[in-house]
Design brief:
The protein is mainly beta. Helices cover about 5% and strands about 55% of the residues. The chain has 5 helices and 35 strands. The radius of gyration is 23 Å and the shape is globular. The two termini are about 20 Å apart.
């Protein structure tokens, strides 16, 4: 049954997408109409007509490989890498094109979830599982013109579970495996003629393994437990007015091993509780559509434990409030999207506190010059309570010389204001810091063919006035010179047979930190991923993934190259129920992604999913 009002909702239910897993090839072939919601503001855009690179991941992709943590799936994507201090619950940073999390905006159902209480304003992916995720878009390159500060490296937009069938539907999932790890999730959703809603409750517990590498004599377990509840919904009051919103709550407790002269066997604990809320109203006046929204996010964190100097307890609190307006008008020559947003951020870290306000105005023009040419221009001006005005822009061009070939190019400027911690911390803070500024370029091509595609993208980002905290003082200062990242992304997918798909991704990333003259820590020089998806029988499917990483550096150390393989087997009991077996680190590779921190040995997990 088709619901006309849904065409105005930017929800993942209405979309199909193809990503690295390649699972969609065998079922439907490559779809030219694949859409992105993030590359431009306003209405969705065909990826084939987007002048910037965006990766789209669907629920089917996540189920195919069965990853527990969302970050582990993101690490398979070209241009994306992950640095983690241990297992589930350990601090996890996502890099885009060589730039760490402080340069990456992260949104869940439109809520900005980057943590204002941390040393840098960024999101910790170490606790976010795939249980409540239906879609992810990874937008690469400087996006400050659309998303403001922190979006120098890119933006990750996450959509939680949505209703996919008419009426009331439910789904459950349960998993148990190595390290006494247990996962449970329950989803309730509804799709009607005028409304749609979904709510998901999920929980994970694990004894874990030592965050500090066991090979160094650290034998204790670092456990983790977390509970998450989310809600989203939309309701059409009339044919032209829709109200809706989203909310989530998450509480987690994680044991960890911190730095310093310790043996990694102390009972250090990281606790946090997060709340997020967004509400909106959409309406139309004549030929102009409008959206007014408000959002709220807060996080309370506490680190406690014992070091060689004695016990410690550090509380942190962060909060963000925002109001936004977005409008869209169809003009004769272009689609004009425009808006304004006001944000207040604050933090409190054991008596040290700070606050900042930002007001942004922006406009985007989407010029549909012909069936072969799409030009998008964006201009944004932000006024900061302490740093005054900053103007950024982006120009992107997509050229289709044939329906199956896209040539794309873009250039964008960006900025990152110093975090509240970098400015106000009692030990390392520096109130004389100024915003970092950036410019990024990309040039790429994508060829689509029957049963597959191949693409190549060149990229470069330059950052000036980089903020660092060098030893021995560890006080934040501004670096002279220009830091940069540059590289090449290759991606391809094809149908080998009617039942077998192959997908591959390769990224080469070079970089230089102006402060040290070295490559940026945490980013591999070469990163390759291969995924083989096979329909063995009508009921049995398998996904085999192998990833090879080389040239990885962490601070002053070069880490060993490594190769990790995972396999996931799924068996359909009925049309609405399946069981699966997942083996991670199949060949029991011993490796590190952060010096001194361990990774999982070979581990196996068994689970069941059902919907009704």
């Amino acid at each position: 049954m088709k619901h006309p009002y849904l065409s105005g909702l930017r929800t993942a239910t209405a979309l199909t997408a193809v990503s690295l897993s390649g699972a969609a090839f065998a079922q439907e072939g490559y779809d030219l109409g694949t859409l992105t919601l993030s590359a431009n503001r306003g209405e969705s855009t065909e990826i084939a007509r987007s002048g910037v690179t965006v990766e789209v991941v669907t629920k089917e992709d996540l189920d195919s490989t069965g990853e527990t943590l969302l970050a582990d799936y993101l690490a398979r994507l070209p241009g994306v890498s992950v640095s983690s201090n241990g297992g589930i619950g350990g601090t996890s940073t996502v890099f885009i094109r060589g730039l760490p999390g402080k340069y990456v905006g992260v949104y869940v159902d439109g809520i900005d979830v980057t943590d204002t209480s941390g040393p840098q304003i960024q999101y910790d992916f170490g606790t976010l599982t795939t249980a409540d995720v239906s879609r992810i878009e990874v937008l690469k390159g400087s996006q400050s013109a659309l998303y403001g500060s922190e979006a120098i490296g890119g933006v990750i937009n996450i959509t939680t579970n949505r209703a996919t069938e008419d009426g009331l539907s439910q789904s459950v999932a349960a998993e148990y495996g190595s390290y006494n790890t247990a996962k449970l999730s329950y989803n309730l959703s509804y799709l009607g003629t005028r409304g749609i809603f979904a709510t998901t409750l999920s929980r994970i517990t694990t004894d874990g393994f030592s965050a500090a590498d066991e090979d160094d004599g650290n034998k204790e377990e670092d456990g983790h437990e977390a509970t998450r509840l989310s809600f989203s919904g939309d309701y059409a009051l009339t044919d032209t007015v829709t109200v809706g919103g989203a909310a989530f709550w998450q509480k987690r407790d994680s044991e960890y091993d911190e730095f310093g002269p310790v043996d990694g066997t102390t009972d250090d604990l990281s606790e946090s509780e997060e709340h997020g809320l967004r509400a909106f109203v959409r309406f139309a006046t004549g030929t102009v559509s409008h959206e007014i929204s408000a959002q709220y996010y807060d996080i309370d964190r506490k680190l406690s434990g014992t070091t060689a100097w004695g016990p410690f307890e550090y509380p942190y609190e962060g909060e963000r409030r925002g109001l936004a307006y977005e409008g869209q008008a169809e003009l004769s020559a272009a689609t004009l999207t425009f808006g304004a947003d006001a944000t207040r951020e604050n933090f409190d870290a054991g008596g040290t506190d700070g606050e900042q306000d930002t007001l942004g105005l922006w406009a985007q023009a989407d010029w549909h010059l012909s069936e072969a040419v799409e030009l998008v221009t964006v201009l944004r001006h932000d006024d900061h309570s302490d740093y005054g005005g900053k103007t950024t822009g982006r120009v992107s061009l997509a050229y289709l010389p044939s329906p199956d070939l896209t040539l794309r190019a873009s250039v964008g400027t960006g900025f990152r204001t110093p975090s509240l911690y970098e400015r106000y911390d009692g030990w390392s803070g520096n109130r004389d810091l100024t915003p970092e500024t950036s410019i990024s370029y990309e040039l790429g091509a994508e060829q689509r063919f029957a049963g597959g595609f191949a693409s190549a993208t060149l990229f470069r980002t330059e950052i000036t006035d980089l903020i660092t905290a060098p030893a021995p003082a560890y006080v934040y200062v501004q670096s002279e010179g220009t830091s940069w990242t540059q590289g090449l992304e290759l991606k391809a997918g094809t149908q080998l047979t009617d039942r077998i798909d192959l997908a591959a991704a390769y990224t080469w990333t070079d970089s230089e930190d102006a402060a040290s003259g070295e490559r940026i820590a945490g980013v591999p020089l070469r990163d390759t991923a291969l995924t083989l998806d096979a329909e063995i029988t009508d009921a049995l499917r398998s996904a085999f993934t192998v990833r090879h990483v080389s040239g990885l550096r962490d601070a002053s150390y070069a880490l060993d190259d490594y190769t990790v393989a995972d396999v996931n087997l799924r068996y359909a009991l009925t049309d609405s129920a399946e069981i699966y077996l997942r083996v991670e680190n199949l060949f029991d590779e011993d490796y590190q992604v952060v010096t001194g921190y361990g990774t999982s040995d070979r581990a196996a997990y068994f689970g069941v999913r059902a919907s009704f």
